[in-house]
Amino acid sequence: MIIQMHKPKPRIDELDFLKFVFITLMIAFHLVYIGDAYPVAKRLVYTFHMPGFLLVSGYLFNVNKSWESFWKTMLWIFVPYTIMESGYTMMASLLPIREHIDRLTVGVLVDHIFLHPMGPYWYLHTLMICGICYYIAFKKPEGRFSSVLKQEKPLLPIKMLSLENQVLLGRFTLLALFLLLLSYGCGLLSIANAAYFLVGAIVRQAVGNFRLAFPARWWTLGLLLVWCIDPSHYDRASFAGACLVFLVIGSLLWIYQLGIPQSLRKLFLFIGRNTLPLLLFSPIFTILAKYYQALLLRAEPTGIFFMVVSVILAIAGSYGITWLMDISGISKLFFGKKGLI
Fold first, then answer.
1. How far apart are CA 97 and CA 93, in angstroms?
2. Please, is 295 exposed, middle or buried when counting C-beta atoms within 10 Å of its C-beta (0-12, 13-18, 19+)?
């Protein structure tokens, strides 16, 4: 098989729909009561929601940027990440939450920012590390080396593998080595999480079309239901977990094709295109949910109503905070943009 190098593709609606589903599930199962009340469902969701998010992120990540533009992008992920991770860590030292910190020091704070993030902010930590490795591995050579590379003859017969494809394979090998080193050697990454980002990058560069890699067929939903019968498949770091992620993505793409009402479609895609505020601010509202939890559980004891209300409040509240930051000018200092949404 000959691998073809593809230029970056524009974002497509199906990917934003996937991100909407994954971010909504993230918020729902960060509610402590829901996770405790439905542990099997939590294990299932945790198997695919953030791996799927990382896979889509790897696919969408743009490495065709100048150094200046790329580091600017990284900076304006790092700034809000650092602020919110610091706030979450300090809050964990004050509140009796599951991730409680007994003694907060500067060393503990630095450790959580740079090495072991808490809460949902680990995703941004992983995204920055994987993104930097991806960019370095795929940075196109410039100047004299670039012209020499173009003149080189392939190491393998052209019918087997072209020079361009050899370079592509070499870059993926380098990226994989970077991620392995940072995972096993330094402990900065989960190897499973890094692998899903890598798969997304491979789909982008080698396949080019997300739909070709994850066909939207009705049978994927049937296979998914059968696959979910066995809870031993609920492990993102296993082959069975990877198959579950594949089936979930294919099933969701098929569901999207069925025809969602236009008003809901617009809402879902808006949320999918604007997930950063939810990643940053939703923990505020999932923690506050504990204060009205008992009231809603008395009205509806299964917790489903509590979950729906809490997710809606978390989404609306996160966008409300972002809107206030936009109109007050804080977004320029926090996100590097006058308006994030």
1. 9
2. exposed
Give pLDDT tens digits for 177-186: 999 999 988 8
Q: Between the CA of residue 90 and those of 93, 110, 286, 318, what are the distances in Å? A: 5, 12, 16, 20
C-alpha pair distances (Å), 50 with each of 55, 57, 318: 8, 10, 19
Q: H helices then E strands: how many in the chain?
A: 17, 0
Residue 307 burial by CB count (10 A; 0-12/13-18/19+): exposed, middle or buried?
buried
Structure tokens at 16: 């934003």
φ/ψ of residue 55, rounded to 5: -60, -45
How far apart are alpha carbons 305 and 307 in whole angstroms? 5
Residues 200 and 55: beta-carbon distance below 8 Å: yes
| pTM for this predicted structure | 0.88
User: What letter does residue 139 receive in the DSSP assignment?
Assistant: P
| CA dist 141 → 60, 62, 146, 205 (Å) | 22, 17, 5, 17
The string of pLDDT tens digits covering residues 209-228 is: 898 999 888 999 999 999 99
